[in-house]
Design brief:
By secondary structure, this protein is an alpha+beta fold. The chain is 57% helix and 14% strand. β1 and β2 form a beta hairpin.
Amino acid sequence: MPIRSDNRVQRELLDAAIAAKIALSDADRVAVDVAGWQGEVTREQFNELISALVKRTLLACRRALKDAGVEAEEVLEVVMVGGSTRVPLVRERVGEFFGRTPLTSNRPGQSRRHWRRRSGRYSGR
């Protein structure tokens, strides 16, 4: 069945990929059953699939720091928000890049409030 022409199958694949990403944040492997295919995906396989995306994200961080005239070591805290922050490879690489463990939350509003409170202390507000 041609996947590109079947919106239902595309949606099933996307849902299965998201479910696998979430499961692999805590488990080393996950069973996948989608669109007539059954198999297993390991965290190692998942990491290989996303490594180029993670690398591009870190390049964007490097450009942002360069544009701001700031070195990674000068960043006081790293706050990561959203579902992908639960992915161990993402947290690990961001931590290596900035030289510190990032603060994470999958609740964006809560993280922004927390950051505003903390940044107010640093800026004297």
